[in-house]
Amino acid sequence: MAAETKIDGPAWVVTVLTAPPNIAVRCRGVTKDFGSGGTKVMALRGVDLDVRLGEMTLLVGPSGCGKTTLLSVIAGIMEPTEGEVEVLGADLASMPNGDVVRFRGRNIGFVFQQFNLLPALDATENVAVPLLIAGMRRRKALAKAAEVLELVGLSDRAYALPSELSGGQQQRVAIARALVHQPALIVCDEPTSALDAVNGRHIMELLHDSAVQPDRAVIVVTHDSRVYQFGHRIASMEDGHIISVDDASHHQPAAAAAH
Amino acid sequence: MAWIAWRMLIGNRGKYLGIVLGISFAALLIAQQAGIFWGLMNMTAAQIRDVRGADLWVMDPNVQFVDDIKPLSDNDMMRVRGVPGVEWAVPFYKGLARARMEDGNFQQVILLGLDDATLVGAPQEMLSGSLSDLDLPDALIMDDAGYKQLWPKEPFQPGKAFEMNDRRGVLVGICKASKTFQTFPIVYTKFTRATQYAPSERKVLSFVLAKAQPGQSLDELCATIKQQTGLSALTRQQFIRKTIMYYFTRTGIPMNFGITVLLGFIVGTAIAGQTFYLFTVENLRQFGALKAMGTSNPRIVGMVMLQAAQVGLIGYGLGVGGAAAFGVFARFNSKLAFLMPWWILAITGAAVLLIVLLTSLLSVRRVLTVEPAIVFKG
Q1: Residue of A nearest to B297 (CA)
Q2: pTM of this prediction?
Q3: Which of B24, B206, B208, B301: disulfide with B315, CB 3.0–4.6 Å?
Q4: What is the pLDDT of residues B337-362, one digit of tens each?
Q5: Which CATH number fits domain A55-78+97-257: 2.120.10.30, 3.40.50.150, 3.40.50.300, 3.30.428.70?
Q6: Which residues between 246 and 305 in chain B have a beta carbon less than 8 angstroms from any beta carbon of chain A?
């Protein structure tokens, strides 16, 4: 069922699986263990999940259920112990590590809980980082970054250092950084948990309006039920399993609060 | 990425200055102490360097350095003159004399006796008076530093007199001479007069200065002199090297300076290494984020090495700059010895490179082992 195919753009050969074209991420039987023997912890216990292009998928569940581990596996920064993970048509497990790193750089945008902006760089420079990693010349990268910063409504704070920005503003810079190189997949780890309710809502609106595109999938790990309304689908996790995948419209606030 | 590495580095001012300070301190101490050491070593051979005109120094075979005087006989000089390939050979007296000043105090001086007829070995630059004034009775010429040591703040006036070995000497000129290791005033006079100022001995000829005939190989001539006279003959450079090596191998000077240099190296490495490591640890999340966003390990290592190289280069510049400034100060203070040839800069550079490598090694290891997944931890 697997075929060796050369993908346009990135110069690497990947094993392409057979997911339908509208599926950005397909996980089948994914497990992830940490430690061994008596200290072995099974963070993922056979996860099956499809993430569609053009949608925002929320990964929800209680702390320690494996959300972040699954996100790390999908983003190619952690290898699964077993199972298949197909991301944007590529089987990351079959790629050499260097190619995985390049794949990540070109195809995945990251939004972190703690923003992880470089404190020495101003907002524009932080946004330009993925372009610089990709090898774009600095002047061009900064110009492009300024455009995206305007998109997230921060053009007036373009030269502010992270320490001079509020938490909400920092997260907006982080979103701009995730968008700037136009990746096909954006992964967000608890993007609102370091923010108050109002800022959290603004961030989710921004992600919903700016990040979700027909040719892009967005995965958001969250345990904040107030933001469920922004997702298209909600995958609920418990104890290393996906226990349900529902349309977000099925999640009423009261039900969501149970999470 | 080089730009990001640079911005990360200078963005943390405190750490950045700490690392640069550590490396600067090490570079300064290494270059400055090595410079003083080499200045001192060169001072030991200053009088060989100051003697111009002669190609060879002929001496007793047991002489170990320029101040190790084992007198020759007049006969020895005649035998050197008779060696084929020698154009001329003249006597040269070198010794310590005790000068009795006008106020009754005694002062040790370095007494140099130049060939009466040719004045071979005479100072190269006269600051007051002229070499021909040595023809005057009891005439002496003293070096400028020595004069200032004996008569501070007193402008030179010809006619200042003092006694050596109960014989009167009169200063007729002031010359420039290289700083000596012993720091005694240097007194020049004619050979025959010098032997009268020196304590009475059967043999008073310290060295024979010889000139090779045009086209004559100096090494061959040295070998011939040794073969025919049994004396040791060295070129100027050979004698300088022999003198320096004596002090280098037979005194504790290199050890003392070496310890200081080593201390500078260790302290510099400790300060720079610790601060750089802390800087890296503080930035681990940033490095993790860069990794997650697609920066490969080799590029991350490159960033760390570049940061280390940058602080190394700046620290090196500041350190050797400081040492050079000390050197400029030393030029205006005749008591300070300081020389900074290219190889001291090279050694300091190598030491800084080693500090930078040691410093970055731990940091590189740390950033290599950091998992990009660290960025997903709140």
Answers
A1: A98
A2: 0.75
A3: B24
A4: 888 899 999 999 998 898 888 888 88
A5: 3.40.50.300
A6: 285-286, 288-297
